[in-house]
């Protein structure tokens, strides 16, 4: 087994493991965001009740509650933006995995001796190549979405 094949196999496993670790990290963060959303919602409900039942409450206290409520809304919007970024990252990881699998299949067909390929092999190779181009195009769309989002936030 040539050294370069072992190296490629090892690097592929490392890349797959890195994608898996990233996916786990993203999943944990999404769960944390969900918990934080619930907490912010509960705090918001309490503040709204206080503001509705403001009979005889000093104006300073009302202003403070309103500022707290606005802060909660701002924090929730920030978390929603982060969640959106994480969902894009999840899609990128899925596409990377898909691209790796397609690359692997394509290499198999490309390493075959041309004279030994059947017509079915040639068709399969072309289909894999088209799927690979489709995955790359989807990656480009995600990058475009991220760039638009970044520009709109500026």
Automatic annotation (TrEMBL):
Domain of life: Eukaryota
Source organism of this protein record: Smutsornis africanus (Double-banded courser)
PANTHER family: [F-ACTIN]-MONOOXYGENASE MICAL1, CALPONIN HOMOLOGY DOMAIN-CONTAINING PROTEIN DDB_G0272472-RELATED
Coiled-coil boundaries: 23-50
Keywords noted in UniProt: Coiled coil, Membrane, Monooxygenase, Oxidoreductase
BMERB domain span: 13-154
Name of the featured protein: MICA1 monooxygenase
Main subcellular location of this protein, as a coarse class: membrane
GO molecular function, one term: monooxygenase activity
Taxonomy of the source species: Eukaryota, Metazoa, Chordata, Craniata, Vertebrata
């Amino acid at each position: 087994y040539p050294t370069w094949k072992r190296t490629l196999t090892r690097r592929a496993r490392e890349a797959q493991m890195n994608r898996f670790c990233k996916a786990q990290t993203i999943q944990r963060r999404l769960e944390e965001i969900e918990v934080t959303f619930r907490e912010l919602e509960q705090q918001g409900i309490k503040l709204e009740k206080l503001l509705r039942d403001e009979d005889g409450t000093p104006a300073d206290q009302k202003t403070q509650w309103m500022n707290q409520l606005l802060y909660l809304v701002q924090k929730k919007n920030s978390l929603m933006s982060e969640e959106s970024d994480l969902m894009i990252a999840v899609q990128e990881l899925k596409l990377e995995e898909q691209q790796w699998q397609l690359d692997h299949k394509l290499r198999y067909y490309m390493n075959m001796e041309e004279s030994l390929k059947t017509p079915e092999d040639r068709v399969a190779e072309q289909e894999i190549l088209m799927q690979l181009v489709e995955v790359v195009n989807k990656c480009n769309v995600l990058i475009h979405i991220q760039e638009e989002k970044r520009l709109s936030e500026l």
